[in-house]
């Protein structure tokens, strides 16, 4: 059972979530300059809000604040990935990339009730990222609406 859960977890990438309990810092609007196809006010708000949450999350990773991310994680993360496993995953996959040089949202999409995942509203952000030790990297952050708030559900870097 645990292997099955981990396989599902790995297939949908490493999971983290973030909520409004983090110290409020001024985050530059990561959606500035993006032209969305939708004109729906709620969808535009969701896209904007999820990008802000995602931005705060990747900034935690940039600062090697992996434990803070896990502490703010969704129920899914805490069930599937114990804190020790998450810390090891971040130490192996993220920390060696070094400091952030640049990051830009390359794509952002919505999904409702995706296959093999809990029912709900999701938003996926794809970033083009340059790190000190790896140029032309790509980050994927998936967010889920949980308890009325956008929370980071998965993180992947390649």
Structure explained in plain terms:
- The protein contains five helices and four strands, in the order H-H-H-H-H-E-E-E-E.
- By secondary structure, the protein is α+β, with helices and mostly antiparallel strands.
- The protein has helices at 2-11, 41-62, 66-71, 75-80, 83-93; strands at 100-112, 121-131, 134-146, 149-157.
- Mean pLDDT is 82; it is low at 1-25.
- Strands 1-2-3-4 form a four-stranded antiparallel beta sheet.
- 35% of the residues lie in helices and 29% in strands.
- The protein has a single domain, classed as Roll (Nuclear Transport Factor 2, Chain: A), CATH 3.10.450.
Q: Which helices and strands appear, and what pairs or packs with what?
A:
Elements: H1 2-11, H2 41-62, H3 66-71, H4 75-80, H5 83-93, E1 100-112, E2 121-131, E3 134-146, E4 149-157
Antiparallel strand pairs: 1-2, 2-3, 3-4
The radius of gyration computed from the alpha-carbon positions, rounded to a whole number of angstroms, is: 15 Å
| N/C terminus separation | 27 Å
Name the poorly predicted regions.
Answer: 1-25
Tell me about the largest β-sheet.
Answer: 4 strands, antiparallel
Give the number of domains. 1
What is the level-2 CATH architecture name?
Answer: Roll
Question: What is the residue-averaged pLDDT?
Answer: 82
Q: How do the SSEs run, as a string of H and E?
A: HHHHHEEEE
- DSSP E strands, number: 4
Strand order of the largest sheet: 1-2-3-4
- What characteristic shape results from the CA principal axes? globular
> Percent of residues in beta strands?
25-35%
Estimated helix fraction: 25-40%
Q: Treating each run of at least 4 consecutive H or I residues as one helix, how many helices?
A: 5
CATH class: Alpha Beta
Structural class: alpha+beta
User: Within the CATH hierarchy, at the fold level, what is the topology?
Assistant: Nuclear Transport Factor 2, Chain: A
